[in-house]
Amino acid sequence: MSAFILRRALQALAVLFAVGLISFAMFRFAGDPVNQMVGAETSPAERLEIRRSLGLDDPMAVQFARYLAGAARFDFGISYQFRQPVAQLLKERMPATLELALVATILALVFGILMGVYSALRRDSALAKLFQAISLIGVSLPTFLIGILLIYLFSVILGWLPSFGRGDTARLGWWTTGLLTVSGLKALIMPSVTLGLFQMTLIMRLVRAEMLEVLRTDYIKFARARGLRTRAIHFGHALKNTLVPVITIAGLQLGSVIAFAIITETVFQWPGMGLLFVQAVQNVDIPIMAAYLMLVGLIFVTINLAVDILYTIVDPRLRSSIHQPA
Amino acid sequence: MSIRKTLLAAVAATLLAAAADPASAKTFRFAFQGNYQAADPYTLNETFTLGLHAAVYEGLTKRDKDLKIIPGLAERWETPDPLRWRFHLRKGVKFHDGSDFTADDVIFSADRVRAQGSDVKTRIPSDSQWVKVDDHTVDVVLKTPNPILHYEWDTWYIMSKKWAEKNNATAPTSASATTPSYAALNANGTGPFILESHQPGVKTVWKTNPSWWGKKEHNIDEAIFTPIGSDATRVAALLSGEVDLMDPVPLQDIQRVNSNANTQVLTGPELRTIFLGFDQRRDELKYSNVKGKNPFKDVRVRQAFSKAIDVNLIKDRVMRGASVPAALLISPLLFEGSKEFKTAAVDIDGAKKLLAEAGYPQGFEVGMDCPTDRYVNDEAICQAAVGMLARIGVKVNLNAQPKTKYFAKVLATGGYDTSFYLLGWTPGSFDSWNVFANITGCRDDSGKGGPFNFGGYCNPKLDELAAKILVETDTAKRNAMIAEAWKMERADVSHIPLHQQTLNWGVNKKVKIVQRADNQILLYWVNMD
Amino acid sequence: MSDIAVTVPETAKTPSLGARLFDSDLWASFKRSKVTMAAAFLTLLFFLVAILAGVLSPQDPFDPAQLELLNSRIPPLWESGGQAPFLLGTDQQGRDMLSAILYGLRISLVVGFLGVAFSATLGIGLGLVAGYFGGAVDAVIMRIADVQLTFPAILIALLIDGVVKSILGNQLDPMTILGVLVFSIGLSFWVQYARTVRGSVMVEKNKDYVAAARLIGLPALVIMLRHVLPNVLGPVLVIATINLALAIITEATLSFLGSGMPQTMPSLGTLIRIGNNFLFSGEWWIVAFPGIALATLVLAINLLGDWLRDALNPRLR
C-alpha cells in the first residue's frame, strides 16, 4: 500500500517536472518582457541592460536550472508588472478563484443531479426534454459568449447584478471571502453560473445515464420484487449507487473548473488567479505565468493522487485498474 | 478564536463598515483597460500610470488644463545664464506623513530619478549638477543649454528623502528587483490625495488630503480604481452605473454610451500620432518577393503607398469619425505651424504610375507587422491598409500579433525585424524635436541614433537641423527651423502619418472632470453632483 | 472537458463494418427519432455549404482586395439600410457576413475534423500498442493518459499551442496557424480513444484465435487489428462525434484567448470573438449570425453523438 502511494507520489513529481519544462518552453514564445516593463521612450541600450539583469540573456540551461531551483521552493521571484513577490500575489488571488470554483461546482452538482434524476425517471416528460435542451445549449455556446450575454441581460438591461468584480469582501485571517456580504454574493451569481454550466451539463447527463443503467440492474428489480416503495427504490438505492461515480467525476473536474476560470474571470474581471494569469500572459510576466502553471499543476496532481489513494482504500482490487471507466 | 467567532466578527465588521460610511461622502469609481502597476513614481514611464501618480505626488512644475506649464512645488524659477537654472521652492508644504518639504527632497529625487532602475531617467540630463542653495532654493547646473529642461517635470514627482530612507526605498523599484519594494505599494507625496491602499491589478483607493497646500478643485472624498480589461464588461459597468468613469470607450460603443440616459462620452484630441513605416535600411527587404533590392529605398514607392492610403476613409469607417487625419508625424496641438501641411490626397492612378516608374508595374508583395491590442482599432486599420494597397497591386501579407510579440519583433532588441509596420508615438516633451530624435533620426543596427525609427530612414541634413533645434533658445527662430525640418521630412515621405486618435472617456453625467489632451486621468479635477 | 470515456459493451463480433454500423437496429432508432433526423439533416447541410462555400459566397472574405471599406457595417438585407448582395450584412472591414460565415464554417470544420482525425489515429495507435504489449509500455502510455485526463483540454491545447509557436517563430501564415491548432487540439483529445481501444485489445488478446494465429506464425497484431477495430468502431465513432463538437468549441475558446485563427482568415470562433465587441453597439448581426451558426452546428453534432451513444448501447435501449 505505502509502496503504491510512494510510486504515485514519484509520478506526481515527474508530472510537475514536465509541467515546468513545458511552461518554460512556452515562455520563450510569450514575447520580450522588457518592452512591457518600460515606457515607450526607454532606449534600446537600457532595455538590453534590463534584459541582462533579469538573467534573460543567460544560456537556456542556466535559466532552466534557476527556474527549477526556484520552483522547488515555490519561489518565483518578483512579478515584472507589479514588483511584488509572486507568492504573495497568488495568495491574495487564490481565495477568489477557489470560492468561484467551489460555488460553481456545488451549483453544478445540485442542479445537475436534480435535473439528471428527473430526466431519468420521467424520460419522456416535457420538462425532461427542456432540461436536455438546456444542457445541450450549455455545451454548444462558447463560455465567453454566455458570460457576455448574461452581463448584457442582468447588468445592462435589468440592472440586477454587478457586471464585474467580487463586491465587498470580508477578511478571515489571510483569506478574503465574498460569501458573507450581500454584494459579494450578488457578484458571485453570474460568474459561477457561467463557470458551472458546462459541468452541470456533464453531471446531468452522467446522472441520467447512470440512473437509467442502475434502474435496470437485478438488484433494483429485486428491490421492486420485495415490494419496496418506488420512491425508496429510486432515491435510497438507485441514486445512492449513482452518486459514487458522479462525485468522483465532479472531484476530478474541479481542476478543469479552476482552469476554465481563466475565461470566466477575464469576462467578469473576477480578481482571481486566472485573471492574474491572463494579464501575466498579456504582459509577459514570466514569474507569474510560471507560478500559476506550477500551482495549477500541483492542484491537479494532488486531486488525482487523493482520488487514487481513496480508491485503493475503498477497494484494493481497483489498484490495477484505476481510472478504468465505470 | 474559533472559526464561528471569526466569521461573526467578520460579518459584524462588514456591517459596521457599511454603517459607518456617511451618506454625504462622495466616492468616485473609475476603471481603465490596464493596470495601475506600481505606486513608485519612477517605475514606469507611461501616461496612465503617470496620471494616477499625480493624485499623490507633485512635481516642481505642473501643467494646467491646457497643458501650459505652471508652478508646482517650485513657486518660480529663473535662468541667470543658459547653463544655470534657479528654482525657488514653495514654503510650508508638508508630505502626507507630516514632514516638511525642503530642497533636500528635491536633490534626493533628482538622484533617485537618475539612478539605475528608473524608467524616467530622461526627465533631467544625466550630467546636470544639483546644488542646494538654501532650504528652499535649488540650482541646476547644465553642461549644454537646454531650453526645454523643465518640459517634462510635471511628471517628475518629488519624493520624501526621510520617508524613502526610513523604508529602505532610496533606490527606484527597478524592473529587475529581487526584493519587493516598499514604494511599490505605499506612497508619501505632497499631493491632494493620500494613497489609502493599493492592491495591484485589483483595486486602488485614495482619500482626499485635508491639509493639502493648494486650492482644492475637487469635491470627492474618496476615489476607487479598478482595472477592467474586457471591453464589453467595461462598457457594461459604465452603463449600469457601477463606475463613474471608464477609459477607453471602444469606438463602436460611443453611440450607445451617449444614448444612455445617465452616461456620455467625453471626446477630445489625443497627442499620439499613428503612422506607417517602411524598412529603408536593409538592401533587401526581409519579407518581400522583391529580391536583390529594397523597393522602399525609392521615394517614389513610398509616395505611391502614401497616395493609396485613404486616411479620411479610415477615419470615417474604421475610426467611426473618432480620429483626426494627420499631415505630419506630430499632433497639430504640439506644433503651431502644422496648418501649412496637408494630408496626402488619394490618387490611385498616380500611385500606380509612380510604382511603374520605380520598376514595379505589377506591384510586389510585402509583409506587414501590426499590433492587435496597442492602439485604438490598430488591427482594423492595418486590414484597411492591406485592402487599399491591394488596389495599386501591392499584396500585403499581414502579420498581426499582440503587442508583446509585435514589439519583441520590431524593436531594436528584436533586431528591427520588419519590412512594413504600424506604430504610434507621443512626443514625451510635447515638442517636435522629440520626434526628430526618436522617429526620423538616422540610426545604426543597434538603435543608436533614432531608436524608434524601426525602418532606419536616414537623412543626415534633417539630423543636422534637428541638432540645431535642440539648442536654439529663440522661440520664433526655433519654430521656423522646425517647419523647415518637417518640409524635408515630407519631401522624403519618411513615414505615412495616418491620424491622431481621439480620447474617449465614458462618464456618468453626474461627474465633471477635465479631459486633458495628454490623456491623464487627474483626480484633483473631479467633481460629482 | 468531457473526460469520461464512453463505454459501449462488446457485443457479438460481426465481420462486416457496414453491417455492424448500419444494422437494422441502428437504422430503426434513427428513423424513430425526429430530433436525430433533423440534427443529421442540419449537420449534412453545414458540411455541404462549407464545401460549396466558394460557389455560394458572393465574396471571398479571405482576399483583402475584395473588401471595400465603403461597404462596412451594412445591416442585413431586411433591415433598413440593407444592401444587396449582403444578405446578412457586413462587418467593419466590409466583409460580407454570409461569405465570412461560410468560409469560417469551413475553417472550423477543417480544424475540428483534422483535430479529431489526428487524436483518433494517435489514440487508437497508442491504445493498440499499450494493450498488445502490456507491461512497461502499457504502464508508461496509460500513466501519461491518466495525467493528461486530469488536465483540462483547453489548458493543454493552450500550452501546446504556445510551445509549438515558440519553436516556429513569430511570423506565421494563416495555414501554419491552422496546422498548429489541429496539432494542439488533436494532442489534447487522444486519451479516450486510447483507453477504449486498450480495453478492447485486453479482452481480445487472450482469446483463442490470437493464440492460434501465433501458432501458425501469422502476425498476431495484424489479426487482432482486424478483430479489434470493428469492435471498437462504435465507441470510437461516438467519441469522435462528441469530440468534433468539443474541438470546434475549443478552437473558438482558444480564439478568445488570442491563440485562434487570425482575423484575415477567420474561423467561426474568430468571427464571434470579433463580433463580441459589437454586442452593445447595435451592430448585432456581426456577432449574432456567426454565434447562431456555431451553436446550431455544435448542437446538431452533439445531438447526433447522443443518439449514437444511446443507440449503440443496448442497455439504454
Give a written overview of the molecule.
The complex is a heterotrimer of chains A (326), B (529) and C (317). Chain A has helices spanning 2-30, 33-37, 44-53, 60-72, 86-121, 126-140, 143-157, 182-216, 218-225, 230-268, 273-282, 286-314, and strands at 170-172, 175-177. Chain A is mostly helical. Chain A folds into two domains: 1-81 and 283-326, no CATH class; 88-272, MetI-like fold (Orthogonal Bundle). Chain A has a two-stranded antiparallel ribbon. Residues 318-326 of chain A have low confidence and may be disordered. Chain B folds into two domains: 27-217, Dipeptide-binding Protein, domain 1 (Alpha-Beta Complex), CATH 3.90.76.10; 273-503, Dipeptide-binding Protein, Domain 3 (Dipeptide-binding Protein, domain 3). Chain B is built from 15 helices and 19 strands. Chain C is elongated, with a radius of gyration of 22 Å. The chains are: A mainly alpha (326), B alpha+beta (529), C mainly alpha (317). Chains A and B meet through helix 2, helix 3, helix 5, helix 7 and strand 1 of A and helix 1, helix 6 and helix 12 of B.
Write the layout of secondary structure elements.
The complex is a heterotrimer of chains A (326), B (529) and C (317).
Chain A: H1 2-30, H2 33-37, H3 44-53, H4 60-72, H5 86-121, H6 126-140, H7 143-157, E1 170-172, E2 175-177, H8 182-216, H9 218-225, H10 230-268, H11 273-282, H12 286-314
Antiparallel strand pairs in A: 1-2
Helix pairs in contact in A: 1-4, 1-12, 5-6, 5-8, 5-10, 6-8, 7-8, 7-10, 8-10, 10-11, 10-12, 11-12
Chain B: H1 3-20, E1 27-32, H2 47-56, E2 61-63, E3 69-71, E4 74-81, E5 84-89, H3 103-114, E6 129-134, E7 137-141, H4 161-166, H5 182-185, E8 193-199, E9 203-208, E10 222-227, H6 231-239, E11 245-247, H7 254-259, E12 263-278, H8 299-308, H9 311-318, E13 323-325, H10 348-357, E14 365-371, H11 378-390, E15 395-401, H12 403-410, E16 420-425, H13 432-438, H14 460-471, H15 475-492, E17 495-508, E18 511-512, E19 527-528
Parallel strand pairs in B: 1-10, 1-11, 14-15
Antiparallel strand pairs in B: 2-3, 4-5, 5-7, 6-7, 8-9, 9-10, 11-17, 12-16, 12-17, 13-17, 18-19
Helix pairs in contact in B: 8-10, 14-15
Chain C: H1 17-21, H2 24-32, H3 34-51, H4 53-56, H5 97-133, H6 135-150, H7 153-168, H8 174-187, H9 191-205, H10 208-215, H11 220-256, H12 268-276, H13 285-312
Helix pairs in contact in C: 2-13, 3-5, 3-13, 5-6, 5-8, 5-9, 5-11, 5-12, 5-13, 6-9, 7-8, 9-11, 11-12, 11-13, 12-13
